[in-house]
Amino acid sequence: xxxxxxxxxxxxxxxxxxxxxxxxxxxxxxxxxxxxxxxxxxxxxxxxxxxxxxxxxxxxxxxxxxxxxxxxxxxxxxxxxxxxxxxxxxxxxxxxxxxxxxxxxxxxxxxxxxxxxxxxxxxxxxxxxxxxxxxxxxxxxxxxxxxxxxxxxxxxxxxxxxxxxxxxxxxxxxxxxxxxxxxxxxxxxxxxxxxxxxxxxxxxxxxxxxxxxxxxxxxxxxxxxxxxxxxxxxxxxxxxxxxxxxxxxxxxxxxxxxxxxxxxxxxxxxxxxxxxxxxxxxxxxxxxxxx
Length: 291
Known about the structure:
By secondary structure, this protein is an alpha/beta fold. The protein is 37% helix and 20% strand.
């Protein structure tokens, strides 16, 4: 009989979210943007790096027929070290389960940070389907392999100690990122990601990301599938690799992005920090930019 891994928190707390009220009330917004499908990943609930307020704003402004949670939604690695779970993180879980109750199909594909949920693959909890991978068919008939992507990360697979060491360094950078953005808010400057900037500038990081994208795309080609949607590397992307469409929905720690499918099958990456900055900009600035 398979052993059930002990979760780093009391799973019973998630059993009846539909009966609770969020700390941040769900905003009733007329004319929510409607999409056929939404993909989000790498939220890292349970860490201070999670941009919970931004994700809540996103969830209150968009809707879809299907939503894929493409791994690392809850950060079990961080929760094992110290428990951190503010009300805003509850509010995100509440909003996801509320969508499931309203009829949205929610598909949860656990990643490496929330791998403790992989043992529940094939089961449904609160209307959420848990699976290791999925095949999504777009409105225009394209078949997409949906997976987190850590399966193709040699460091995660072969050197877990190195992966945990890198995770600790990443947490330190995100702490600096939070301090930096606190200062930026004092000067009414928009959100800016230090780690995203660093990854774009460091040659080895760029090489790793490029190699990861190629390996994942090759897996889709090997299965005779038109494209692939992944998370894991915290870099939103849309490009064609040797005839295979590669999509990465990014994250909600650094870039705050989501991948969406329109009703005609068109795919788009939403950069929510930029959308919020444009929405919150003074009307005079908007008129100036338009001019």
